[in-house]
Design brief:
With 174 residues, the protein is mostly helical. Helices cover 77% and strands 0% of the residues. The protein has three domains: 7-49; 51-116; 118-174. The protein has helices spanning 13-26, 30-44, 54-114, 119-154, 162-169. Helix 1 (13-26) crosses helix 2 (30-44). The protein is rod-shaped and about 120 Å long. Residues 115-142 form a coiled coil. Keywords: Coiled coil, Plasmid. Residues 147-174 are annotated as: Disordered.
Length: 174
């Protein structure tokens, strides 16, 4: 901005009074203040006659664009997380169905063998099965607890691959 004054501008009395007061408040001459004000409006493409400043509209547009970007990022993270969760859920369900089919076959084989065993053998086998079931339930509870504790330590960070989560937990988390 040049400090050399070249042109004259005529202002109405009210505008002149306000401009002098504003210039005095910031410690500038009326000419320097008016030149700075014109430069301000011109470089920003603002119309000082508008009651709502265009600059505010531009800021709102930028905020909206930023909000859209953040929302898009959140949607992408959600898709990534939900896909990983769906993959793990499907893997668990398929594994469970296969285990159930295997159990049905084993029960069929055991029923065939039960007919040939004595009462004492059946009792020992029943006690062994109860102990095995109890140990299995305890192991499941322990693994669930460890997995939840690990998830709470990690926090809401997302992973693109469920295998990464399992690898971070180590072999005891599986």
């Amino acid at each position: 901005m040049s400090t050399e004054l070249r042109k004259r501008v005529t202002l109405d009395n009210n505008a002149h009074r306000k401009a002098e007061a504003a210039a005095a408040e910031v410690g500038a001459s009326l000419g320097v203040y008016a030149s700075a004000a014109v430069e301000y409006f011109a470089t920003r493409g603002l119309d000082p006659r508008e009651t709502e400043a265009r600059e505010g509209q531009l800021i709102m547009q930028q905020i909206k664009k930023l909000g859209d970007r953040v929302f898009g990022l959140l949607q992408e993270q959600e898709r990534t997380l939900l896909t990983a969760m769906l993959e793990e859920m499907l893997r668990t369900r398929i594994t469970l169905e296969r285990v159930l089919r295997l159990n049905e076959m084993l029960v069929g084989n055991l029923n065939a063998q039960l007919e040939t065993r004595s009462e004492a053998q059946l009792q020992r086998q029943q006690q062994a099965l109860q102990l095995l079931r109890q140990r299995n339930e305890e192991a499941v509870e322990k693994q669930v607890k460890e997995a939840l504790e690990a998830a709470q330590k990690v926090g809401p960070r997302t992973r693109s691959n469920p295998a990464e989560a399992a690898a971070e937990q180590g072999p005891q988390g599986r």
